[in-house]
Structure formats: C-alpha cells, structure tokens
Design goal:
The chain is α+β, with helices and mostly antiparallel strands. Helix content is 19%, strand content 29%. The relative contact order is 0.09. Bound molecules: alpha-D-galactopyranose. The site of alpha-D-galactopyranose (GLA) has 11 residues, from loops.
C-alpha cells in the first residue's frame, strides 16, 4: 500500500493518481520505479530508513510484507500485511477525524515459533517537495519548546529523546513547511508522537529526492522481544496537514484534543500553587494566611506542593514514603484541607510517585526496586533514583500509598512530578523504559478509576512531560518551572502549537522572578497567565492592597472569559516587528476576539507597527478597546492613543489598516477586546 498524497483535500475523480505519479526509471537505478509503501523496505529497493527493523535468532532481518487484508471507510483504512518468511504480521490503522487530524496506529505480531527482536517501528508519511523546511522544538529546564527552523537538505534530520520521559528537549511536534509558511498562511505538515518514553522524529530526503517525515518510539536494545503470538503496539502518530499556516496546525490539534471523551469539561479552576510561596517550609499558620488571601481574591483550587510527606524537609530525602510527616503536619493534613475546602476552594496535593530517594524507608527496604542494570546504580539526579514501576511490588506500593492518602482526605487534584531522567534504566536485566511508560499510564488510570473525580497534572521539572501520550491520562500540564512572564510568553506560544490553552498551567509568579531574578509588572504577569489554565504561584500575603485588588479583578475577568478562551481558536498574528507578539483567541463565528499586545523588547522606531487583525468579517463593524484585567501597563509616552477607550472599525479596516500601538516599556502588555456590534 502506497500513500500517494498527504496534503490538501482532493475532489473529483482521482482514480488515476497512482498512474500520474509513477516515476521514470533512471539510468543507474532499479529497473522499475521505486515508491515507498507504508512498509518501507530494502527488499523492495527502498534506500531510506525502513518502517520496521528487527531480527530473529536466525533470519527475519529483512522483511517483504504483502497486503493480506484491506478495509476502508471514508474516514479510515485498516490494512493487514504479512511476511510469511519472517513470520510477522503488521496491522496498520489510519483514522482521519473531522478536523483533518490523521491518527496512525500499528501493531506488530510475531506469528513464528522463534523469538523476534524488534528494533523499531516508525510511522512514515510522504512529504511533497514544496516542503523545504522543518520546524521542531528544543529546550532545557525553565526554557522549554524553543522553535528551530532549518532547510531540508539531502540526508536525515533526527530529533530523538532518550530521557525516559518526553523531556525538556522533546519536540512536541515535527513540522515540515514551505519557505513562506508563517502563523496564518502557507502549508505545513505536522506529526506528533503520542508517547512519553523514548522517541524519535525524522525528516528524510534520499538520493532520488523522495522526502518523508516519520516518528515513533525509540526502543533500547532488546527492549521488545516478541514470542510466538505476542504483539508490539507502536505509539500512535498524530498528523496534521494545514493549508493555513502554523495556526491551522494548532487549530486542528486543539479541536482533536478537545473532542476527546476525557477532555476536562468543568471550567478550569483558578489555581494557587504553594511551591514558590513556601517551598519546603510547611508552616500551617503561614499557609492558612496565604489561603485567606487566596479566598479573598477568588482562588478556586489550592495545591500543596512538595514537602508534606515523611522526612521531606528538603530535596535530599523522603521520595518513596507517601505518608504524612507528623513533624510538619502533627494533626495530619485534614485540618488544612478542611480549612481550605470550608472556603469553597478545592484542595490538591503533590506527588512524585515514580521516584525514590536513597534516604527513604522505601529504598532501605527495597533497594532492588529501582531501575538499574546488573550490580550498577545509575547516577543520582536531584538525589533521587527511579522506582521500577514494572516491578509489581513497587507499583503496588505507590498505588496503595497514594490511594490511601486520596481515600482518607478530600483531595480532588494531584500534581504528579517526574524530576529526573532515566539512564541505564534496566528492569530485571532488560531495558525498562517502555515498561515504565506503560506502567505510569496504568497507574494514573487506576487512580482515576478508584477516584472518578480526580484530576491529575503532569509535571516533570516543569514541562518535561508534555506530550500526546500522557495527555489521555491527565487533565493539565505544568508548562514550565519558569514563572517569569517574559520567558513564559515564548514557552506558552510554542507549547500551544499542539496543546490547547486550557490544559496548560500558567501562573502569576512573584514580583521578582525566582528563576530569572527579573522584576516584572503585575499587569504583565497577569496578561501572560490569562491565556492558559490560569493560576498564581507566589506568596500573595506579600501583595499590598492595590495588588490584591488587581489580582481579584483579574480572577473575576478570568472566570468570566475562560469559557471563551478555552473553547475558541488561538490566533498568533504575523506581527511585523520581532520586538512584540500579538496573539489571542477569536470566536469561530468571528463575533469576538480577545488579544494581547506584548512588548517583549524596546522598539527601535518610536511607534511600533500598527496592530492588524486578519480574520474578522470584512463587512461587519467591531468595537475595539483596550482592557486591563490587572491594571495598566507601564507606558513610555505622554499621551496614549485615543482609540484605547473604544473605536468602531470594519473587519476589513481591522485587517488592512489596523490600530496604532501605545509606546510601552519592554516586558509590558495589554489586552484588546474586539466585539461585533
Ligand atoms: C519540580 C516541579 C515544581 C515543584 C518542585 C517540587 O521542579 O516542576 O513545580 O513541584 O518539583 O520539588
């Protein structure tokens, strides 16, 4: 089976596409045209990377599959292929949803008597030659998902992730584009791997000009060995073609994600996370004071972070012992939970169940329960080792301790962390990353089955486990440990390339950023945190009366607008000055938009380029005004443009003439509301 086209939707009679796209036979080449099918195979003369690689004890090192079954519907294809010599079967399922999102799944089954050692299975899709560039994302702790765009050249561009979690440097998508593609226009071909373990993306251009994009799990040596009748289920590939630029890609991903049965339906509660407010000092009286202010400004969920459990006075001990520490919580957690819930606020608690400190009762009792190889112990990271959840004893320990805490308390939310990478991660003499990844999905599912209203946040030193695999088991991502709003603008902008805003935790951090040390206006921090699942991560007892009032008006604004922000379409305007971002959310029926103008750096010219909004109804009239949910930005001018208090413009003037931008100090922002009149 050959995919002849992945791109714009075709209409009319296409029965001769296969004939039309058959290539010539070149000099010094195979004697018949070679086009890779969904199984890219050396046995058929294909010289790029193969779809499936592996081997048996003897033989089966090269495959030649034949289609044995084929079924299709207007939105799906099921194809079964067999290689009777290698004794393997591959079943591939393609499903296209109404948003143009293609999900590709594959299952490899060993039909033979001998064991089959699978090296990898990668899903590949064809890329047309118009795709001359690739875009993917790189990062580190506190600076996740920085875009990197480059020209496609002959060879293979590989982005792999070997952290055992998706990772800070994991590319949330691999995107091919044309030279001209920008946010709002141009073609883009995107793939994203639905997996939180090791993974690989590739963009390949081979000797004959064939271009492809692929992705799949990166298996470690011997990680998957199939006995007779056993199957390997490859992580799904979620692919999107857009003719409407990078925002078109996001729009499809967001709609696809929102259409899932498990997508959170409740309005996303305004959250206060205690981490940057108290760190490890769990002083109940102090926490109560913070909760009092939280209640005053309208917070709906309070999360008690790291530090509540046995011996966890700092990050050197305690992981693995998920029992309340009487040293800091002598009466247990019930009094503080009751205090919080009596104010109508939900309570959430932090766990890092996949980890263990060597200084813990768990490790002292079961040093063999960590992922390791032979007699070696992997190097420590933040003083911790990784618990081997593939070990039934370890799995049950975590499940039962977490379950006991949840069963004994009124806890509706857990923040689940994963603060180190997996290295030398062996399970009983075999590579253990895949097993570990499946185990954490299972653990989340079992916790949710036991506690049906439980919501889980996926955190991993900030945003190191944000992917389309874990998304089906959790309700929120912690986007980054960097709460500095200026850094967050870029981190959020690109995380939202795939993940819709309502799943991304975005918090107002302290006045002086704890990561960068920068001092940023509250109005700027508030505008930045608004475009996500908003919250606060700051000791708000420090906030003076004016700041508390600003926080309260911002919270009210968030509550009034979250329905809109969390269901409509994200827009990133291709603003001509790189010193600013212009982004927002716009109703699909074009009746309303809520945008942020974000001055990242000082402009060189006095006046920034006018703001233009490309996608409103050209003939409709709109009221446009600036709004300040948490106070005005810092200006550098003696008089603001008059329109800020309100001006009426046609959709075509919004698109082609625009509005002048007030001169802002760097790291400042304000909102623009556009409403059809
Ligand atoms: C990680 C998380 C933080 C916080 C700390 C606690 O770094 O990303 O938000 O929970 O762990 O130790």
């Amino acid at each position: 089976m050959i995919i002849r086209h992945w791109g714009a939707r075709l209409s009319g009679d296409n029965s001769q596409v296969a004939l039309a796209t058959r290539t010539s036979v070149p000099n010094s080449g195979f004697d018949a045209p070679i086009t890779p099918g969904i199984m890219r195979e050396s046995a058929r003369g294909f010289l790029g990377q193969q779809s499936l690689t592996g081997h048996g004890k003897v033989g089966a090192w090269s495959t030649k599959f034949e289609v044995t079954q084929f079924q299709s519907s207007p939105s799906s294809i099921d194809v079964t292929l067999q290689d009777n010599f290698a004794c393997l079967e591959v079943r591939v399922h393609f499903e296209m949803d109404t948003y143009g999102v293609l999900t590709e799944r594959a299952t490899v089954t060993n039909l033979g008597e001998a064991q089959y050692y699978l090296t990898d299975y990668i899903h590949w899709l064809p890329l047309p030659q118009e795709a001359t560039q690739t875009l993917d994302f790189a990062g580190r702790w506190s600076n996740e998902r920085n875009p990197q765009r480059r020209n496609i050249a002959a060879g293979t561009w590989i982005r792999d992730s070997r952290e055992g979690r998706s990772g800070h440097n994991f590319s949330i998508a691999q995107i091919a584009l044309t030279q001209e593609t920008n946010f709002r226009a141009g073609q883009a071909w995107a793939i994203s791997i639905a997996w939180s373990g090791n993974s690989q993306y590739a963009v390949e251009r081979i000797w004959d000009g064939t271009q492809s994009i692929g992705g799949g799990e990166l298996l470690l040596p011997g990680e998957v060995v199939l006995s007779k009748g056993e199957s390997y289920e490859a992580p799904a590939l979620i692919a999107v073609y857009s003719g409407d630029g990078l925002d078109g890609v996001s729009s499809s991903y967001h709609s696809h994600i929102r259409s899932r049965q498990s997508h959170p339906k409740r309005p996303r509660p305004l959250t206060l996370n205690m981490w940057e407010a108290v760190y490890f000092s769990h002083d109940e009286a102090n926490i109560r004071k913070i909760v009092d202010v939280a209640a005053e400004i309208g917070v709906e969920r309070v999360v008690l972070d790291d530090g509540w459990f046995h011996s966890r006075r700092d990050d050197r001990a305690g992981l693995g012992d998920w029992v309340i520490d009487p040293q800091v919580w002598p009466q247990g957690l019930s009094p503080i939970i009751d205090y919080i819930t009596a104010k109508g606020i939900e309570f959430g608690l932090w766990f890092e169940g996949e980890m263990v400190n060597v200084d813990s009762d768990l490790y002292r009792a079961h040093p063999e329960w960590i992922l390791h190889e032979g007699q070696r112990t992997p190097p420590e990271w933040r003083n911790q080792q990784v618990l081997d959840l593939g070990h039934p004893g370890a799995f049950d320990h975590v499940l039962s301790q977490v379950d006991a805490i949840l069963s004994g308390h009124n806890i509706s939310y857990i923040k689940w962390d994963h603060n180190r990478t997996l290295v030398d991660a062996g399970h009983l003499g075999q590579a253990g990353v895949r097993r570990q990844t499946q185990a954490i999905y299972k653990l989340f599912d079992q916790l949710k089955a036991r506690h049906p209203n439980l919501e889980i946040e996926s955190c991993a030193s900030g945003g190191a486990r944000v992917d389309l695999g874990v998304i089906d088991h959790v309700d929120r991502f912690w986007t980054s440990d960097n709460n500095d709003a200026l850094a967050r603008q870029t981190i959020q902008r690109w995380t939202m390339q795939v993940i819709p805003p309502e799943l991304l935790g975005t918090h107002i951090g302290p006045t002086h950023g704890h990561q960068t040390g920068r001092t940023l206006e509250l109005s700027f921090r508030a505008v930045t945190a608004l475009f996500g699942h908003a919250g606060i991560e700051w000791d708000i007892t420090e906030a003076d009366a004016k700041a508390r009032k600003a926080l309260a008006t911002w919270v009210t604004f968030y509550k009034a607008n979250r329905g809109f922000l969390h269901s409509e379409q994200m827009v990133r305007v291709d603003y001509p000055n790189s010193s600013a971002y212009l982004h927002g959310v716009q109703a699909a029926d074009r009746s309303r938009g809520l945008f942020a103008y974000v001055q990242l750096e000082p402009t060189i010219a006095v006046h920034p380029a006018p703001m233009k909004f490309p996608d409103f109804d050209p003939t409709a009239s709109y009221l446009v005004k600036a709004i300040y949910p948490a106070g005005r930005p810092r200006y550098m001018l003696s008089q603001t443009p008059e329109w800020l208090t309100g001006v009426t413009l046609s959709g075509s003037a919004l698109a082609h003439v625009g509005l002048s931008v007030p001169i802002l100090a760097p790291a400042n922002a304000f909102l623009i509301e556009i409403t059809r009149v």
